[in-house]
Structures are given as C-alpha cells and as structure tokens.
Amino acid sequence: MKKVQSTCNYCALDCNLDFYVENNRVIKTLPTKGYPVNDGFCCIKGLSLSKQQTTVKPNSLPKLRQEDGSYREVPWEEAFTYVADKLKQLQEKYGPESVAGISTGQLTMEEFAIFGHVMRNYLKANVDGNTRLCMATAVVAHKQSYGFDAPGYTLEDLELSDRIIFIGANPVVAHPILWGRVLQNKVPGHKVIVIDPRCSETAQNADCWYGLKSKSDLLLMYTIANQLIEKDYIDREFIEAHTEKFEEFKEFVKDYTLERGVEGTGLSKEQINELIELIHSGKKVSFWWTMGVNQGYEAVRTAQSIINLALMTGNIGRPGTGANSITGQCNAMGSRAFSNTAVMYGGGDFTNPARRERIASVLGVAESMLAEKPTKTYNQIIEGINAGEIKGLWILCTNPRHSWANNETFARAVKKLELFVVQDIYDTIESAEECTVFFPVVPGLKKEGTYINLERRLSAMRQVLEREENEISDYEAILGVGRALGMGAALKGWETPKDCFQLMKECSRNMPCDFTGVTWEALTDSHGIQWPYPEGREEENQEEQRRLYGDGRFFTASQKAQFMFEQIQENPYPLTEEYPFVFNTGRGTVGQWHTQSRTKEVKFVEDVSLKHAYIYMNPEIAREKEIKENDRIRVFSVNGENAVFSVKITDNVGKHQLYAPIHYVECNKLTLSSYDPYSKEPNYKAAAVRFEKCEEAGYV
Ligand SMILES: Nc1nc2c(c(=O)[nH]1)N[C@H]1C(S)=C(S)[C@@H](COP(=O)(O)OP(=O)(O)OC[C@H]3O[C@@H](n4cnc5c(=O)[nH]c(N)nc54)[C@H](O)[C@@H]3O)O[C@H]1N2
Ligand SMILES: Nc1nc2c(c(=O)[nH]1)N[C@H]1C(S)=C(S)[C@@H](COP(=O)(O)OP(=O)(O)OC[C@H]3O[C@@H](n4cnc5c(=O)[nH]c(N)nc54)[C@H](O)[C@@H]3O)O[C@H]1N2
Ligand code: SF4
Ligand SMILES: [Mo]
C-alpha cells in the first residue's frame, strides 16, 4: 500500500491528509499527524476527497457544441486549436479586450499562474477570479493599511489569545479546523466573542454574542474607537512608533458618540461598553473577520476599522493578537499574489518599472509582453458581456451561474457569447449549460502543485492516483491552448507545474512573500512552509508557526501602518415598508461546499442535506404571517427577481432578517448588483426583500 501526503483543496486551512492507495484506489484517508495546521484532524470534506468523480464523472475528452446545439467529443489537440483560433479571431474582430477569463482561488498556484501568462500577458485579456467574491476587500484593506496584502497571523495565535473576537465569521461551520484551534486555547479566563447579526453556530458556542443590525459594523467600530480614546485605553507608544494618521483619526471618530452607536447598531449602551471593557481588559486581543465584513457596500473601510482597533491598542505582531482576515478558499492566498490579475506575480503594480523588468527577466520575455494594467473586475466582465463588448469567456474551477451576485445577470450574459469555455471536473454544473466548449479535467487527487493557506503556509499537492487515458490536468489544458496560440518561446520554462513553481519563486524574490528558500522537494511530505522564507535566511525561519509585524515594521514606504477611515455611508438598499427584511446569506453546513458540485458526491453529506433551497425565519414573524415549519414562501428581492424557499423557523435570526444558505441556486437569484467601491466585492449579505406564503403544495 502506497502512502501519499497531499493538501485538502476545499477551504483555506489547507489541512494535510495521508492517502493510502492500493490498485489505484484510495483505501483510507487519514489527516496527517504532526502537520501544524490540523495535526491528525480534519473535517468531513477533507475525509471524503476520494469520492470526487466517483458518481458523476464526465468523459475525459473535451466537447465542442455543434450548430444544432448538440456536443461532439474531440481529441484534446483539436479542442486546443479550436479554442486558440476562436480567441484570436475574436480579438482580431473585436479587439484584445473582447475576451476574458474567470479564474479561481481553488486551483494550484501554478495553474492560475499559467492561466495569467496565457490570458493576461500573451493575449492582454482581462481575467478576474472568484477571489473577487471573497477576499478582494481584505486585499485592498491590507494594501492600504499595511502596504502589502500580508495577513500577519499564524494559527497558533488562536490558542494564545485571551480575547478572540470573530466579526462576520462563522468558523464552526466554515472553518471547523480553525475552530478546533480555538477549543485548544488554554489561556485562563479567555473569552470568545462573536459580532454577527445572526446567532450563528459560532455565536451559539461563544462566551458573548453581539447581534448588531446588519451592516452596522463600521459604525460600531468607530464608536468603539472613540470610546477607547476617550477612556485612554490606547497604546500611545505603539501608535507613535509604528503608525501614521492617528491624530486625524482621533478627530474623525469624535462624531461617533456612544448614543449614535446605540441608535445605528441596535446594540445597547451596556453591550457596547461591555465589549469595550473586554477589549481593554485583554492582554492579547485578536480580531478575526470573514465574509460578514468582506461582503458589503463599505467593506474595505469596515475591515480597516478593525485593523485600526488592533493598531490603536497595540494588538498586532505579538502572540495571540492581530486584525486577522480569515481566507475562504484553499488557495485564495496563492491566487492573490500569483494569478497576474490585480497585481504582478509576487506582488507589485503593473506600472512599476522595477517590477516589470524583474518579472520580464524571470519569465524570459520582453517587457512589452507583460500585462499593462490590472484586470477589469468581475462585475465589469459580466457587464461587458451583457453590453456586447466581450464575446469570449473562459472560466475554470468556478460556477458563476450559481455563485455570482444577482446570478440571472450571468445567465443572460452567457447567451450572448460567441465562445464560452468551461473547464471543470463536472459537466453537470449550472455554468456548463450554455458552454460552447467543455474541458473536462482531473480533480486534485490526480495532479500536483502548490497551495498557500490563510496563514501564508505553502503546502504541497502531490499526485495520489494515476490518470486514465485522455485525462489531463488544468495545467496541461491551459498549456495546450497556449501552445496552440503559437506562444512558442514565451512558454519556455513553463513545461510542468514544477517548472512554473521555479518561475513564481523567482518572481517572489525580495518581495514580502519571498519564498526563494523553499524547494519543490522540501515541500513534499513536509509541515508546509510559511512565507516569507527567503533563500539564505532559512536558519532564522526554522520555527513552524511564524507571524509578521513582530518588529512593528509594516510594508508601507515609511514602514508605519496607516489609520484608514471615511464617514459611514447610507445603505444603498435600506429596508423599506415594501421590502422590510434583510436577506442575509452564507454557509449552511460543514458538509456542503458552495455550489455543491463536489459535496453532492459525499453520501454522508447528501443524506443529511436538504435537496431544495431553504431559509431561516424568526418565530414571531412566522406566527404573524401564519407560516409553519417547511411551508414554502416566495421571496421578492429589490433586484426585481423572486424565488421559492421552504421555511425553517428559528430564533437564531432576528425579526427583520431572513438567512439563506448559499448552496442552492435560488439564493443568488435575489442578491444585489451592488459592490464595495474600492474592492468591487459584492454586497452579498444585505438585499432587502419581502415574501408571500405559497399556497401551492410544498416540497416532499
Ligand atoms: N462548509 C463550508 N465551509 C466553507 C465554505 C463552504 O461553502 N462550505 N466556503 C469557504 C469560503 S470560500 C469562505 S469565503 C468562507 C466563508 O466563511 P464565513 O465568512 O465564516 O461564512 P459566511 O457564512 O459566508 O458568513 C459569516 C457570517 O457573516 C454574518 N453576517 C452577515 N451580515 C453581516 C454583517 O453585516 N455584519 C457581521 N458582523 N456579520 C454579518 C452571517 O450571518 C454569517 O454568520 O468559508 C469557507 N468554508
Ligand atoms: N449569496 C452569496 N453568494 C456567494 C457567497 C456568499 O457568502 N453569499 N460567497 C462567495 C464566495 S466567498 C465564494 S469563494 C464563491 C464560490 O463560488 P464558486 O467558485 O462558483 O463555487 P464552487 O462550487 O466552489 O465552484 C468551484 C467549481 O470548481 C470545480 N472544480 C473542483 N475542482 C476542480 C479542479 O481541480 N479543476 C477545475 N477546473 N474545476 C474544479 C467544481 O466542480 C465547481 O464547479 O461564492 C460566492 N457567492
Ligand atoms: S477544514 Fe478545510 S482544509 Fe481542513 S479538511 Fe475541512 S475543508 Fe479541508
Ligand atoms: Mo470565499
């Protein structure tokens, strides 16, 4: 029996797993003992990775749509040529920006790097990622506040902190292994605190829950900041030595009185004061945020208001502290720095001459071949298709027909495309319904590459199972199209994922994410390695749990962190008499992953998951509207769409709120085409809606 250690490619923990293989089948899966992230534990999704493609596997050859609408299977080379020719024709006819791609945070670093090379460098097309739906807010917040997109924490901080404050984060469901680290915290008197409009599964397991009004976090944080200053609960020494713009911030927050905070957040004076005292009495306070913060109409400023609290109280860089953004997908961190979409490989703006020179020399191409500007954002790509400006789209490892905000806009868009390539491990996903080309690729167990987790840890995906005839990986599919495009010498050095790893490593040299000291071989069967890990300084980086900012130096020109702030904005979609409920959305259960394509194959999960869309409703509202458990309602959104859900009654949601798990396509039918102005991340969690009881027979 062979044992292969590899990485779970669902959530951002990147747990490591040992796969035991016999006759090219996984006989058992054991979470890797001693691995610093998950040390012998993992969740149901990781344990079931070997179920992928066991019940719904597409054929291994690509499919092209014919004029009569049917599909024809063709050899890979023919499909590469078809796609390459079509891309070139579209660009000749409509201009370089008439083709676009949508990438992901779930592929290996090498896969989205080569996609960025073919699409962004060679074709000068726009490529955004599903990371826009997820981490874009944290990226912009980090860049502005710290000077680089560099979350500083290590997971051990959860065990060392005496105040663990989760804001818009539900790790009990979304990051169970991270929650496991919280449970290992032995600091006497430590408190777990949750700020979430919903009494989430995490709130139910916390010491304190603050159920504020939806999207009132920015007001709450400014109110807290003002009170901390008034009470002199701040760390003047740290502020003076390591930050800038505090005096302006201090003046600015004076308007955010306790009374204003109480009115706008719906929390009581006592609750806000209690929270302030909890922060002040903590010696090692850590703040952790996820999608309840990142997805909003003033999300970047909200993330930064959390960073401000950490800075002003000196809770950063020390064990157990930090303003810590929890990443979502397994390789969102990798995609942020190595997909060539918003920044160049390894970071740096597309206009930075020194970075251009460096990247061109590493890749062995002329500077003129490099992308010249950041990509159009996801929403601009979809709008561009709907406006008839973008005619070709290539999506990989993402299912936007389901997951995109106000998803009927995606459904409308794809009907207008002349070329729509979908590259996925399943041809049954919603997004594949309208595709003109389908590229079937192998899942993670049949390929290799590198992942970077939420605490900056590089981790190896290594091939567990042999491939069958005609089975190819994402990397090979992209390389195939690149070759068919005639990229020739521009693909020298990109032959295999391992070659690409070398290139990315060189691109990272002297950047904050420098991993030049890491080798492909050293990552195999390892404990993972956190960046930074520069060549020549391996000795000083031997500790397995490392954090940034311990020296109080940030990545800005002055090496000081910036207080970033702006007046709170009016909610663009406030509740009204006609639309009196907030439509909150998020993860439903530990077993279900996003659009469910993969987790549908896991019997334990399928057996206990509802087969149709459902929504949580407060008991008082249910009584008032004469609705019983499992009755169906039709929910109408301000976006003009409506959809049917069955009702689950619970007082975990407030009277002005409904909560819909995202795992059903109906959910995003109702979400908004509304974005944060800086990150362009969708405001997914706060559409205004109304509902009516359905009189037809219910689900069985
Ligand atoms: N089982 C499972 N795990 C997953 C995933 C999955 O699909 N399934 N997806 C992964 C990915 S990609 C991501 S990004 C993460 C997401 O991880 P999380 O962000 O933790 O998950 P969500 O359920 O989207 O949202 C978290 C909480 O935000 C709250 N919220 C809504 N509005 C507000 C608000 O205005 N203020 C505050 N403070 N809170 C608010 C919601 O009530 C919800 O409880 O999960 C990852 N893990
Ligand atoms: N309303 C609402 N909507 C949301 C959110 C929310 O909180 N509320 N959250 C948003 C967030 S944070 C995220 S991250 C997105 C996620 O949205 P998506 O990225 O669209 O969701 P997934 O289901 O993870 O899609 C991944 C796809 O990749 C395929 N796949 C798996 N492995 C491979 C592989 O190795 N290669 C290839 N090519 N394909 C593979 C799967 O079959 C699946 O179709 O959803 C967003 N949508
Ligand atoms: S916690 Fe995340 S990385 Fe770990 S096994 Fe579960 S889904 Fe995979
Ligand atoms: Mo995400």
Detail the topology: elements first, then pairings.
Elements: E1 2-7, E2 16-22, E3 25-31, H1 44-47, E4 63-65, E5 71-73, H2 76-94, E6 99-103, H3 109-122, E7 126-129, H4 136-146, H5 157-160, E8 163-167, H6 171-174, H7 176-183, E9 191-195, H8 201-204, E10 208-210, H9 217-230, H10 236-242, E11 243-244, H11 246-253, H12 258-265, H13 269-281, E12 285-289, H14 291-294, H15 299-312, E13 322-325, H16 332-338, H17 353-363, H18 378-386, E14 392-396, H19 400-403, H20 408-414, E15 419-424, E16 437-440, E17 449-452, E18 457-461, H21 474-484, H22 497-508, H23 520-523, E19 529-530, E20 561-562, E21 581-586, H24 603-608, E22 614-617, H25 619-624, E23 632-637, E24 642-649, E25 657-661, E26 687-693
Helix pairs in contact: 2-21, 3-21, 3-22, 4-15, 9-12, 9-13, 9-15, 18-20
Bound molecules: ligand MGD (2 copies), iron/sulfur cluster and molybdenum atom.
Iron/sulfur cluster (SF4) is lined by residues 8, 10-11, 13-15, 38, 42-43, 45-46, 176-177.
Task: Offer a few descriptive terms.
700 residues; alpha/beta; Phosphorylase Kinase, domain 1; Rossmann fold; Dimethylsulfoxide Reductase, domain 2; 4 domains; seven-stranded mixed β-sheet; 25 helices; 26 strands; binds ligand MGD; binds iron/sulfur cluster; binds molybdenum atom; 4 iron, 4 sulfur cluster binding; metal-binding; metal ion binding; molybdopterin cofactor binding
